[in-house]
Amino acid sequence: MNNKSKQDAINHAKECAPDECCGLFIKTNNGFEYYKCKNISYEIKAESFVIDPCDYADAEDKGEVVGIVHSHPQNVLEFSEQDKYSCKSIDVPFYLVCPDLDKMIVIHPNEVDA
Amino acid sequence: MLKKITVYGKLRKFLGQSTFEADVNNVREAFSFLFSNFKGLEKHMREQLYVVKIGAKVITTDLINMNTEKEIKIIPVVHGNFFNFVLGLALKYGAKKYITNKILTTVVSYVATSLILKGVNDMLAPQQDTRNSVSNQDSLDPAALASNYSFTGLTNISNAGVPVNIAYGEILVGSIVVSNGVDTVQVEGTN
Fold first, then answer.
1. What is the mean pLDDT of chain A?
2. Which of A10, A90, B64, B95 can bridge B27 by disulfide, Cβ–Cβ 3.0-4.6 Å?
């Protein structure tokens, strides 16, 4: 993932704090891109995320989805069990950012043992 | 008129293509079109949450028979939860009491609700195991056909639960013997 899309993801996390942000990395003809999505979680948005399916469809219409990004506003840079499970079931790498940390971690579906 | 069906996410990989054109009127027909053309799709879809959309409208169960002229989209729902983590954190950093209380109430109510719902669901609709109902059609091995209790005979190669095609117009086809006669002795089980 290139630096610009990574920075876009972290900026989006900052905008959304204290809620979780979510987005997608898509691969278009112009390279990688971060696509902001709306968090439509019915639960507490600070602790969960659900990507708006409309955004997912629009993003995939633009290009191939190569990563799913979300943030932990608590600044805990670790995937939760639920995140890993989702990663496995959706079969796309998951990326995690935190608003106050300049880092991004990734988990691939084949690294998750279900 | 042909309608466009677009699938997203993992479904696109599973089906090998992103759009379909089919003569369907509503979402229910669209799904039966997909299920009857792709083996194992039903099981595949059961493992993931999907949202079905027509235009900007999200289709809920009561709208699956609504006729439409627009494109049908099947989109996976991506979700994640920080929640199971909070418990660990609370122990790690000695979080405040109210967080613990909140977690406990949520956990208790969540577990209770899901148990009740599961119980009710099991009573109302006992689910058949989909893996067993689809057996090997090409084989004449009796073991593979063991799930069929009502038909007898060597030439009977039809399994219970297999769709039967309806042909409109003139079609040159082979045949499948559905039944050579029903033997009441064997209705109760295999030999």
1. 85
2. B64
